[in-house]
Each structure stands twice: as structure tokens, then as C-alpha cells.
């Protein structure tokens, strides 16, 4: 719980607000005192959504659904007003954690799964009773998952009816719309077959919840959403170590055929007969202690605390505060504490440095005139920019869409803080540094443009490509109200480690090299995410592979290598390529190799023995290089395809002369070979003394996209939630791609490119649909 903030209301209806319980994409949840003295949880819609007629209708439906369900295991609705200036609803307050917090939370109690069979049995019995009440009311919950189950001493409580509907409810039953949470969806939900989603779908989700609690793992694995959906549809559930008494019930719930699944009543009866359990003492002891501690904390609050007062800002809320103009720029230090280290003195955003980059010392802030801008940085770099590359920012100021930019500012421009979080010194440090450098050039361009109503302050943090460091930094950035948005992280694993933290805080995150999210369409506003993923999802790399194999290569027999060292990515890529080739009347065989030592020679021998005329390798640089060399040694002369996982100098070095001829599918461009990006490439090389690396141009576009989002309405946005919403409304035409959100594909789906290795160098072929392949 957090104190109330300056702009928070003190009362809604008859409810006196006491503390903040949390914030999400659509609003804030408060702890409140009901008229009779009991505690309540009050959800309030954010002001930015209050004028949205469609959202008010959805919110009104949620209230109506909650009123129709009567069960002791469903959190009761106490009051609501969908027509208030700030729409709100109040439910009974449950001081316990969610089941997700207990099972998955990094700071949860020691009672994480697997739970004892008796505890799982009681959980299942009572949730089955709750679902029976939902189904008897003629509804389908559609999002049964650990995060929507609160734990109380006397039993669980099912919450969140934001996407509940009648089985024939038209808004969410149209074909092609996936609604819910991957990993706990039914196969019919994963297939987006809205008309088939009824009570059996909730039973399947209940089976997933029970399996997760009983075994400690999700029954259809973790990782990318697309891979989880595919496994849900095609694979049998994995139930390692599940108690024998529970297994028949759980497997029955997880039947692929809805008609064969038991009803909620039958699930409860089967669990009662299978396991003898004490409903009075059903929770694992650590969970009971956690609930007791939280209950005591609420009771100990005593009198209502005063609202926390923060320094006023332009719009009056603490969340909208921005960094002071002359505050030192923070960079990650190398000490064990992880605390930021400050550069001495006020510095220009363009001159922000990170120790690992070993660049010239930061210089003092200069006036934001054209001449002042050109002298930022080291003396040598400034001279080169002025002579050959610096003026391009000014010559191209008209690139923004007409009418989309801010109005000319005659007064002080609002300064907004953006954090760069990425791998600057780890295994992917070359990619992270290229992104940071591209971002710095974009910040310099924004700050040099007097027509914009805002300036940007860039803070750089090195997470070394370590998920634990990423999570720690994410928590710090979330707590720092001066940070309006985050650029990064660099890798999928780091993003996944911090995703929940950023999403819960509604902190806008723009990524350019992450390919794991955005797999499920978010048709309902309650599932709004704060992540703008400017790179297509990894699974879409199958498209350029298939185009090349079916086109220029005209392959008839393709040897696909699923390198399990790459996890779900390799399986998904090979599966989609195989299906695509099959639809084109071509044969493709998948061979899996373990994540350990790769016997490249034996693998090459299999490709030759299969009489393949093309190979696709899904692994990383060194393993792809070893396989390339082995193929050449085995006399293979067919087409050879890999992805961006194999892109880099380590592949070229490992493969040697055998690298030539390989075609690689990527989600990034070569800025030096892209007409729209050549001026950027020249400025980059002049500033940093090297060609822009992968994702440098994409990071440049990401910052300018953020600047367009924050400044396109005339007055700068300074509240995180408002930025998240406008990200979906702005179209930005960049040097590497056009950024525009669609419900079907997220922010981008066609930024897919091909390279070919020629003379042991990567030759850019262009966007895959227009490349000569």
C-alpha cells in the first residue's frame, strides 16, 4: 500500500479513500472505508478514459456482470457508479495475496507451488463452486488464472469480470480475436473461436490453475505467448510430480474437446471424493502468515492518514513531475549496491555517458541554438559533425507528418526524462551500445528542434544482459516518478523479467530488439499493455525464410534444424516454416539438436543423406558457423538460411569461407544501405567512428516516435498512462520503418528484412517482400 497522492480524490460516493493499493493501465485501486466501517477496494477509471463512450459501456457491463453472480467465493460488489465524472466500483477488500503472487512473485512467501494435494483440492473445490455460480448466471468468466484468484483464510475469491460475457455475447465471439491470458487459455480461446467459448472453457482454465499449483509449473510451458498458444492447442499437458489423486481430475479438465470436459460441479465433486481435506486449515502455512501480516497492517492503520503532498507540477500530480533541468544524469555504476552514479555537473542529454563505453568526458550544457548544438560532445566529434554530418537534423526537420508535431514554443520547453535500459557490457553489449548511440542522436535532434514543445533528458542504465539486474532496475525506474518512459531492454529474457513490473505500473516501454510479446490481440481495454514493441515478433521471421525458399531458391526438399539451445524460438520457427512450405507443395523435415555440444559434421551428413536442396538453421552465431563449415565439408551446395540469431562477426569467424551464400532473415536494417537512413548513418559514423550496428536506426526511430507521442497534442504529455494510450494513436514514419498500432499485429509486422553473405560480409537485400530473392 502507498499513501494517497495530491491529485487523488479523498472520497468517492460513500467511500472514504485511505491508501493506494495499486495502479493499472485503466485506473487506480484504493483501499477505502465503507459507510458501515468495513474496508473496501475501490477501482477508479483514469481520467484519460472517462470520456471514452466505448470504455464506459464496457465498465458498465463489468458492473452488471458482477451484480449477477452470487457466491461466497466471488468478491462481492458493494457499490458502483459508471456515470460519475470518474467512474468507479467498490468491492469487498480481501487482504490476502493473489495466487499468482504466491506462486510466481519474486518476493512471495516460501509457500510457492507445488502445494500439498489437500490444499490444491480445497482450492479447486471452492473455485469450482464459484464458476458454477458464474455459469448458472448465464456467463463465462473467460480469464480464470492465478492473478484473478485472491487468497483468504476461509477460501479463495474469484475476481475481475472485465471480459466475462454470455456465451453468445457478440463483442468477443468474433472469429480471430484471442482474449485472455496465454498459459491459462482453453484451446478454443487460443484458436480465437469465439462462438465455441462456453463454460467448458472456464473448466479448462481451472485445470491449468490447479496444475500450476500442484506441480509448480504451467501445464503448457512458459515463454513466448505464441508458443504457449500452439502447445495449448496441439500438445498434451506436462504434469511433473502431480499427486496421483489429483491427476485424473486435472487431465479431465484439460481435455482438448470441450464436450468431454466435466462441468464445474463435477470437478468439485471429483476433488472432494479424491482427496480428504480440511477446509478450515487449507492454506500452506507461509501463505497463512502472509495473510495475517497484511491483515494486521490494515488494522494497524488506525486513523485516516493525510494525503501525501508532493511538489506541484504543470498539471498538478506527482506522477507528472519531470526532472529538474540541471540535475546530473544517472548512469549505472559497477558497485554491488547497484545505485546510480552521477556525472559531475549538469550535462547535455546528448553527452550522457556510460562508463563501459569509454567515450570522451561529458561536456557542460550548451544553449539549444543550432551553433550551440553542433559543439556538443568532444571537440573532434563536433568538428566532424559540423563539417559533414551535423546539419542533416536541420535539413530534415520537415519529416514529421504535417500537423502532427507540437506548435512552435516561445517559452520554456517541457523537459521529459526517458531511461535507456539495456545490455551495454554483456553478451549483447554491441547491440545495446548501438541502440544507445542511436537513441542519443535522436535526443539531440529533438532538443535541437525549437518547434517541438518538449526536450528530452536521457538516462542510461547497463543491465549487462542479466534478467535479475533488469528486474531490479525496472523496480527503481517504476518508483522514480520523474521517468516518463523506458527504451529497452535489449534481450527477450531481460524484457520478460521486467514485463510485469512495467505493466503493473503503466510505465511506457518502447523496445526495438525484443520479439516475444504482442502475440495475443488485446481486444478489451482492460488488457491494455504499456509496451510498444517496434520489432515484429520472432515467429514472423518464418515469412522471409519461406519467401526465399519458395522463390529464388525454389527449394523442394528442405532440411530444418531445430536448435534447442534457442528454446521456443527454434521450435516455433521450424514449425511455421514447415507448414508454410507444405502449403506451397514442398517437403520439409525437422531435425532437432540438443542444447549441449553440437556435432556439426553428423548434422551436415544428415542433411546430405536427406537429399535436401536447402537447409534452415535456427541456432546462434557459433553453432550456425560450425554447421556452415560442416556443410561445405560435406559437399552441400543447396540454399542455406538462418535468422538474426546467427547474425554477427562470430558467425563469420566460425564459418570462414563457408559463410558466403548464406541468407539471413532479420528485423533490423542496414542503415548504410537504406536510402532513408543514409544521412543518419553518416552522422552516426562521424560521431562514433564506426558504422551503425543492428538496431541503431531502430532505436533512433523509437525515440522520435516517443517524442511524437508526447508532443503531438500541442501540449506535452507528462503522465505515463496518457502516453501509453496515445502510443496506439500516433503514426510515425521513420527511417527504418513506419510505426503504427493495429489490433491485429501490434506496432509492426512487416519490418522483416533479408541479408546475404558476400565475401564474408553481410550484404543488405532489403525488405523481404521487395528484395530480389
From TrEMBL:
Residues reported in the UniProt entry to bind ATP: 43
Keywords associated with the record: ATP-binding, Kinase, Membrane, Nucleotide-binding, Signal, Transferase, Transmembrane, Transmembrane helix
UniProt xrefs under CDD domains: STKc_PknB_like (cd14014)
Domain (Protein kinase): residue spans on this chain: 15-283
Source organism, top-level taxon: Bacteria
The keyword Zinc belongs to this UniProt entry's keyword annotation: no
Name of a matching Pfam family: Peripla_BP_6
SMART domains reported for this sequence: S_TKc
Cross-referenced Gene3D superfamilies: 3.40.50.2300, Phosphorylase Kinase, domain 1, Transferase(Phosphotransferase) domain 1
GO MF terms held by the record: ATP binding; protein serine/threonine kinase activity
Transmembrane segments: 373-394
Keyword flag Transmembrane helix: yes
InterPro entries per record: Kinase-like_dom_sf, Leu-bd, Peripla_BP_I, Prot_kinase_dom, Protein_kinase_ATP_BS, Ser/Thr_kinase_AS
Similarity section: Belongs to the leucine-binding protein family.
Protein name in the entry: ABC transporter substrate-binding protein
Origin species: Streptomyces phaeolivaceus
Lineage of origin: Bacteria, Bacillati, Actinomycetota, Actinomycetes, Kitasatosporales
Amino acid at each position: 500500500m502507498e499513501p494517497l497522492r495530491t491529485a487523488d480524490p479523498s472520497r468517492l460516493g460513500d467511500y472514504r479513500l485511505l491508501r493506494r493499493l495499486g495502479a493499472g493501465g485503466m485506473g487506480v485501486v484504493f483501499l477505502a472505508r465503507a459507510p458501515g466501517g468495513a474496508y473496501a477496494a475501490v477501482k477508479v477509471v483514469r481520467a484519460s478514459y472517462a470520456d471514452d463512450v466505448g470504455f464506459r459501456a464496457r465498465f458498465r457491463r463489468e458492473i452488471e456482470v458482477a451484480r449477477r453472480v452470487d457466491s461466497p467465493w466471488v468478491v462481492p460488489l458493494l457499490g458502483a457508479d459508471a456515470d460519475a465524472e470518474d467512474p468507479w466500483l467498490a468491492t469487498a477488500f480481501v487482504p490476502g495475496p493473489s495466487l499468482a503472487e504466491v506462486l510466481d512473485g519474486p518476493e512471495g512467501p516460501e509457500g510457492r507451488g507445488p502445494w500439498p494435494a489437500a490444499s490444491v483440492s480445497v482450492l479447486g473445490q471452492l473455485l469450482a463452486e464459484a464458476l458454477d455460480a458464474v455459469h448458472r448466471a448465464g456467463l463465462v468468466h473467460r480469464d480464470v488464472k492465478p492473478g484473478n484468484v485472491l487468497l483468504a483464510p476461509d477460501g479463495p475469491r474469484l475476481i475481475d469480470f472485465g471480459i466475462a460475457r454470455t456465451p453468445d455475447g457478440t463483442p468477443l465471439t468474433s472469429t480471430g480475436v484471442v482474449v485472455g491470458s496465454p498459459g491459462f487459455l482453453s484451446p478454443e480461446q487460443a484458436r480465437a473461436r469465439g462462438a465455441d467459448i462456453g463454460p467448458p472453457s472456464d473448466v479448462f482454465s481451472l485445470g491449468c490453475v490447479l496444475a500450476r499449483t500442484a506441480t509448480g509449473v504451467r501445464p503448457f510451458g512458459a515463454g513466448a505467448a505464441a508458443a504457449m498458444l500452439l502447445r495449448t492447442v496441439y500438445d498434451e499437458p506436462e504434469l511433473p510430480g502431480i499427486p496421483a489423486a489429483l491427476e485424473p481430475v486435472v487431465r479431465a479438465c484439460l481435455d482438448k474437446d470441450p464436450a468431454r470436459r466435466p462441468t464445474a460441479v463435477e470437478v468439485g465433486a471429483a476433488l472432494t471424493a479424491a482427496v480428504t481435506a480440511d477446509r478450515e486449515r487449507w492454506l500452506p502455512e507461509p501463505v497463512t502468515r502472509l495473510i495475517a501480516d497484511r491483515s494486521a497492517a490494515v488494522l494497524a492503520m488506525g486513523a485516516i492518514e493525510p494525503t501525501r503532498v508532493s511538489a506541484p507540477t504543470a498539471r498538478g500530480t506527482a506522477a507528472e513531475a519531470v526532472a529538474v533541468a540541471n540535475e546530473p544524469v544517472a548512469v549505472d555504476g559497477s558497485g554491488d549496491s547497484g545505485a546510480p552514479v552521477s556525472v559531475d555537473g549538469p550535462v547535455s542529454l546528448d553527452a550522457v555517458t556510460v562508463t563501459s563505453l569509454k567515450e570522451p568526458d561529458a561536456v557542460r550544457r550548451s544553449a539549444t541554438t543550432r551553433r550551440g548544438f553542433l559543439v556538443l560532445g568532444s571537440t573532434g566529434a563536433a568538428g566532424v559533425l559540423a563539417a559533414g554530418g551535423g546539419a542533416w537534423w536541420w535539413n530534415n526537420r520537415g519529416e514529421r507528418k504535417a500537423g502532427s508535431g507540437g506548435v512552435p514554443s516561445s517559452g520554456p520547453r517541457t523537459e521529459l526524462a526517458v531511461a535507456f535500459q539495456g545490455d551495454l557490457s554483456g553478451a549483447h553489449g554491441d547491440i545495446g551500445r548501438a541502440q544507445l548511440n542511436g537513441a542519443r542522436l535522436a535526443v539531440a535532434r529533438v532538443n535541437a528542434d525549437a518547434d517541438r514543445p518538449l526536450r528530452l533528458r536521457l538516462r542510461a542504465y547497463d543491465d549487462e544482459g542479466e534478467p535479475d539486474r533488469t528486474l531490479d532496475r525496472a523496480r527503481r525506474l517504476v518508483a522514480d516518478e520523474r521517468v516518463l518512459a523506458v527504451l529497452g531492454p535489449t534481450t527477450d529474457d531481460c524484457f520478460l523479467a521486467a514485463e510485469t513490473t512495467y505493466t503493473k505500473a503503466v510505465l511506457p516501454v518502447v523496445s526495438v530488439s525484443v520479439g516475444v510479446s504482442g502475440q495475443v490481440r488485446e481486444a478489451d481495454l482492460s488488457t491494455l499493455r504499456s509496451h510498444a514493441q517496434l520489432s515484429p515478433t520472432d515467429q514472423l521471421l518464418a515469412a522471409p525464410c519461406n519467401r526465399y525458399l519458395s522463390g529464388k531458391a525454389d527449394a523442394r526438399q528442405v532440411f530444418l534444424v531445430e536448435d534447442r539451445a534457442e528454446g521456443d524460438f527454434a521450435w516455433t520457427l521450424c514449425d511455421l516454416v514447415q507448414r508454410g512450405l507444405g502449403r506451397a507443395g514442398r517437403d520439409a523435415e525437422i531435425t532437432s539438436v540438443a542444447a549441449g555440444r553440437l556435432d556439426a559434421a553428423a548434422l551436415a551428413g544428415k542433411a546430405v543423406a536427406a537429399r535436401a536442396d536447402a537447409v534452415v538453421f535456427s541456432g546462434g552465431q557459433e553453432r550456425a558457423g560450425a554447421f556452415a563449415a560442416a556443410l561445405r565439408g560435406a559437399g552441400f551446395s543447396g540454399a542455406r538460411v538462418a535468422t538474426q540469431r546467427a547474425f554477427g562477426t562470430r558467425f563469420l569467424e566460425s564459418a570462414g569461407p563457408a559463410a558466403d551464400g548464406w541468407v539471413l532473415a532479420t528485423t533490423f536494417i542496414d542503415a548504410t544501405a537504406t536510402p532513408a537512413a543514409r544521412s543518419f548513418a553518416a552522422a552516426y559514423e562521424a560521431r562514433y567512428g564506426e558504422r551503425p550496428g543492428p538496431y541503431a536506426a531502430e532505436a533512433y526511430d523509437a525515440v522520435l516516435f516517443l517524442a511524437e507521442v508526447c508532443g503531438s497534442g500541442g501540449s506535452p504529455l507528462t503522465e505515463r498512462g496518457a502516453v501509453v494510450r496515445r502510443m496506439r494513436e500516433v503514426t510515425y514514419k521513420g527511417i527504418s520503418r513506419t510505426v503504427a498500432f493495429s489490433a491485429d499485429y501490434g506496432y509492426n509486422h512487416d519490418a522483416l528484412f533479408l541479408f546475404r553473405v558476400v565475401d564474408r560480409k553481410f550484404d543488405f537485400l532489403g525488405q523481404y517482400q521487395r528484395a530480389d530473392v
